[in-house]
Write a structure and sequence with these properties.
There is one protein chain. The protein is mainly β. It contains no helices and 11 strands. Strand 9 and strand 10 form a beta hairpin. It is globular, with a radius of gyration of 13 Å.
Length: 115
């Protein structure tokens, strides 16, 4: 059973940066491709990007390309989402997702971009 925990969210000014972490509190993260999603109030949960198990491949939605970077440290059982040049429209709850035979979700972490 894989249990995912997101952390690192908070309040940041426009143009600022945050790094989110997705850690497996139980289970091994390294065998899963990991995706990040976000959800704003009243909106659907949107895919942001993903990283392959080996860290060889990453993919991003167009609106975050060049600003967000996904990386992983399998030795630490953690995947990161580095977010730079944040905009108010990036405000959302951010979730990580591990998809295998079963799909696992974390509880989410709130990111608020506001002056």
């Amino acid at each position: 059973q894989l249990q995912l925990v997101e952390s690192g969210g908070g309040l940041v000014q426009p143009g600022g940066s945050l790094r989110l972490s997705c850690t497996a509190s139980s289970g091994t993260l390294s065998v899963y491709p990991i995706a990040w999603f976000r959800q704003s109030p009243g909106q659907e949960r949107d895919w942001i990007g993903c990283i392959s198990e080996s860290d060889r491949f990453t993919y991003y939605r167009d609106s975050v390309k060049g600003r967000f970077t996904i990386s992983r440290d399998n030795a630490k059982n953690t995947v990161y989402l580095q977010m730079n040049t944040l905009k108010p429209e990036d405000t959302a709850v951010y979730y990580c997702n591990a998809r295998g035979i079963i799909t696992y979700w974390g509880q989410g972490t709130q990111v608020t971009v506001s002056s």
